Amino acid sequence: MAIDKFLIEASHIMMFARSVGDDNPVYYDEGYKSVSGCEGIIAPPTFAQSSAQFDPNYFLRPKIGGEGWFGSGKEATGAKPAKSEKGSVSGGGAAAGLHAEQHFEYHLPLKAGDILSATTKPGNTWEKESKRAGKLKFSESVTEYRNQNGDLVITATGVGVQTERPVDS
Amino acid sequence: MLKENQIKIGDTYSEVLVQDLKRTQIVQYAGASGDYNPLHTDEVFTKEIAGYPSVFAHGMLTMGMTGRMVTNYVGDGTLTKYSVRFTSQVWPGDTLEGKTTVRDIREEKGVKLVDIDLVTTNQDGVAVITGSATAKIAS
């Protein structure tokens, strides 16, 4: 995955903060000065995840027109699950991909007005047996987010898991 | 921002992150984050095709809500690291509580830091995420 332009926008930050139930003014009021000295609108710690909006081929967003989407319409599903760029199948039945771990390293503050680019590289892969979901296949991906000056802002490491069957709850 | 003389190892902080999680909040997160996986928003697909009892929250929604507790504790814009492992699914109707514990207070390259461990549990006391974070502190 590569994202050329991830615009860090105030309204997007406001919507994201609302969705995680965070009403801290530092995420919507540009005149707010927080006790830790932040000025202007900053992004919440997990905001980089929303870079998916700026990935033109993101496989967990329906294509315009809905063609090939694996969610329900008239039928419970009308399509085969889309393949991600890494070639792993996500969503769609018992082989659904789930999120196992997420790590963020913050190198610089992320503020409204910044323009990031992102590149993702595959990391380690490993397998494990589990009682709750059968064989688990883990795979890691490392995304580096850089700002308009080319400086590293955030390193995000995600670990996904493909389960043999739905997880027992 | 926390001050070094205000904290000590073993200090805890906790917040209720959400009560009776609504499906609509999961939809809000899908829209904001751009992750439209139907496992989180499409009850028909999730029950009939994926084989789960209902839709469930994005792990990243729980990490986001837990992040709110973390920044409320350590201050805005002070985090240098934030890591979690997703240990159990979060379902509509769940009530979540997050808790942090100070593990270490240290200095690295002249910067004072606090390391905290964190866990978010549901109404049955089951951990849904566990993790850690590091933040800058003032001396």
Describe the protein:
The complex is a heterodimer of chains A (169) and B (139). By secondary structure, chain A is mostly beta strands. Helix content of chain A is 6%, strand content 34%. About 8% of the residues of chain A have low confidence. Chain B is α+β, with helices and mostly antiparallel strands and 139 residues long. Chain B has a 5-stranded antiparallel β-sheet, with helices on one face. The interface between A and B is large, with 54 and 52 residues. Strand 2 of chain A pairs antiparallel with strand 2 of chain B, so a sheet runs across the interface.
Main features:
heterodimer; A: 169 residues; mainly beta; Thiol Ester Dehydrase, Chain A; 1 helix; B: 139 residues; alpha+beta; elongated
How do the helices and strands line up, and which of them pair or pack?
The complex is a heterodimer of chains A (169) and B (139).
Chain A: E1 2-7, H1 10-19, E2 97-106, E3 115-130, E4 134-146, E5 152-163
Antiparallel strand pairs in A: 1-3, 2-5, 3-4, 4-5
Chain B: E1 12-18, H1 23-33, H2 43-50, H3 59-74, E2 79-86, E3 96-108, E4 111-121, E5 127-136
Antiparallel strand pairs in B: 1-3, 2-5, 3-4, 4-5
Provide a concise account of the structure shown.
The complex is a heterodimer of chains A (169) and B (139). Chain A has 169 residues and is mainly β.
The average pLDDT score of chain B comes to 97
Largest sheet of chain A: 5 strands, antiparallel
Quaternary structure type: heterodimer
SS-based structural class of chain B? alpha+beta
